[in-house]
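hey so u asked for the seq, here:
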Amino acid sequence: MNQSNMPDKDFILIIDDDKTLLSLLAEYLKNAGYHPMTAANGLAGLRDFDQHSPDLVILDVMMPGMDGWEVCERLRNKSIVPIIMLTAKGEEIDKLRGFRLGVDDYVTKPFSFAELTARVGAVMVRTKRTKLPMHEFSSGDLMIDFDRHRLIVSGHPVDLTPIEYRLIEMLARNAHRTIPTEALLIEVWGPQYAGEIEHVKHFVWTLRKKIEVDPGDPKHLITERGFGYRFE
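ran it, structure tokens below
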């Protein structure tokens, strides 16, 4: 399926080892106005993701070989694409694990296609809203002027290095979403810095000293230990 011929509709990648479900869900999403693509295992799903850059991923947890958790981690290491997890497990601990990995929504099997499609629509609306042109961002006494590359706290401009500014801008533009450390490295520093997580830790700390009332108890730049950072 050629994504380049589908400019007006959202492209959705479904990764699930249940071929019957894949076929039926893909048909339902197609009738709902989306452009679905299916993959029957984790490795195939990762290959399809790299090739087609979908707008959203629907990902099953329980798959042989590479399960959904590992696929999710690999996706989050390189992208902040919206992810909806499908699972037969309904325990709260599994949902918390999914959200800590950066999952946008979580649907427990069995589910209706109508419900899942509604969830897809809601996630896409939220995602598109964050992609709208933003000229400034405000949170409490903090304001970022994206056009002028300026940060103001309590009415006073704050001097930032180029790296500090790019880091806080990416986090602010994705406020309330946890961004994986590796994704921050690639977006802010460049792919040649992959694995150099100490860079992120250092600059998050320097930013906290400039914008937080108590850098040791931050209210804006929050660490999700073992995963990444989010802007509250």
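The first strand starts at residue 11 and ends at 15. Residues 3-131 form a domain with the Rossmann fold fold (CATH 3.40.50.2300).
lmk if thats what u needed
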